[in-house]
Structures are given as C-alpha cells and as structure tokens.
Amino acid sequence: MERLFLATGNKEKIKEVKAILPSGKFILETCLERPDMPEVQEDGATLLENSIKKSISAASYFKMTAIADDTGLEVEALNGSPGVYSARWAGENCTYMDNNLKLLRELKGVPWSKRKARFISVITIASPYGKIESFEGIVDGYITEKILGDEGFGYDPLFFVPEFGLTYAQMPASMKNRISHRAKALKALSKYLEELK
Ligand code: ITT
Fold first, then answer.
1. 61: domain CATH number?
2. 92 in helix, strand or coil?
3. Residue 149 above 90 pLDDT?
4. Range of the structural domain that residue 129 is part of
C-alpha cells in the first residue's frame, strides 16, 4: 500500500478524500495525526500555487510523498470571487455559515440566470525530491437563493448542480463524492498513479 501525507487538517475534506480514493490502496496520514506540520501561508494568487505550496512543504517536512487540495468557489456575477479567498471570505475567524450568509447578501436580487458558479479543486502531489504534478476538477452550478440541505460543509448548501437538481448539501455524501470537483481531481490523480506502476 502506498503511504501518502494529506496536507490538511480540515476534517470534512479528509473524510471526503478518504471516501473517494480507492480503498485498500493508500495509507493516508494527515495533519490530525501530525499537527507538527509547519503552518503554510495560503497567500498564492491561484489555487494551483497554494496547492503546490502546501504539498511541497509537507513532502519536505515529513520526507514522504504528500498531496494537497486547494479548493475555491468562483461566482460569475462576482467576477470569480471568492475564489482563492473562499476560506476566510467573511473575515479572519469566520464560520462556513458566515461565508454562506455573505454570499446570499452579495447575490441579493440577482436573477437565477446570473447566479452561475463553479467549484474548482486543484490537487498537487509532491515527492520529497521535489517532483510535482497537479490535477484539476471542476463542477458547474448555480448559487441558490437560500440555504438548502444539511450534508457536507462549506458552501455546499448554496451550490446547486443542475444535472441532479440538488445542492451538494442535499446529496448523500456518497453521491457528492462520486460527482464533485474533489472527486474529479482525485480520479485524475489516481489514474496518474496507476499509470506510473
Ligand atoms: P486546507 O487548506 O487546510 O486544506 P481549507 O479549509 O483552508 O483547508 P481550502 O482552502 O481548500 O480548504 O478551501 C477553501 C474553502 O472553500 C473552505 O474553507 C470551504 O469553505 C470551501 N470548500 C472547500 N471545499 C469545499 C466543498 O467540497 N464544498 C463546499 N465548500 C468547500
């Protein structure tokens, strides 16, 4: 089994990555087991820069292959915001709900046709020797006019996926994990790792 360090302490993200990656193939360690991982400033201008930074930092500190996921929600009517600022969009110590309420406020009165958005995950794998590869997963959707559903985390209750007629938060976890931005990026990563064998 391949040992991989997953450079995050975000519990919901860890749960999803563990559920999505093929079972029995990887032993994942995370910042929950290794909180000594040095803090990484997510100050890159892009999701790609941040995911590279987090994965390289973990790979060199733990001397093992590491993956990092940087995810953002881009809203068309807000010129791509919150994007790379998705985590702390409503302020330094904001909650997921603070971010969702800010998004609802910013889009107040905006008609459905102009509420297009997309979720993007960029996942980078870094070796301790500095080799890196990155993979992207994108899902297009719309921002709803109210909170819908209580599964998932982050912006899930406002992200509506038209093909399924549900927000991410209205989907059972198994469904989100089949079709999400994170699932797409992780599938591309798994394929790459298979091909290396
Ligand atoms: P790490 O950097 O430690 O991995 P983070 O919470 O800062 O954790 P990101 O920068 O990747 O993670 O994500 C930014 C924010 O985007 C995150 O705090 C959530 O609010 C939101 N987000 C990420 N993935 C999401 C998902 O699958 N569904 C809904 N919201 C998500």
1. 3.90.950.10
2. coil
3. yes
4. 2-196
Give the residue, by CA position, lying nearest to ligand 1 atom 22.
154
Catalytic residues: 70
Judged against a pLDDT cut of 90, whether residue 1 lies above it is answered with no
| Dihedral angle over CA of 73, 185, 47, 163, nearest 10 | -20
Give the chain's domain count.
1
**Looking at ligand 1, which residue's alpha carbon is closest to its atom 17?**
87
The position carrying tokens 């391949």 is 2
Residue 116 burial class via C-beta count within 10 angstroms: exposed 0-12, middle 13-18, buried 19 and up: middle
pLDDT in tens, 45-80: 999 999 999 999 999 999 999 999 999 999 999 999
Task: State the CB neighbour count (10 A cutoff) for residue 76.
Answer: 15
Q: What percent of the chain is predicted at pLDDT more than 70?
A: 100
Q: For residue 70, report the distance from its CA to the centre of ligand 1, in Å.
A: 7
Burial of residue 147, with CB atoms counted within 10 A of its CB: 0-12 exposed, 13-18 middle, 19 or more buried: middle
8 A C-beta contact, residue 169 and residue 149:
yes
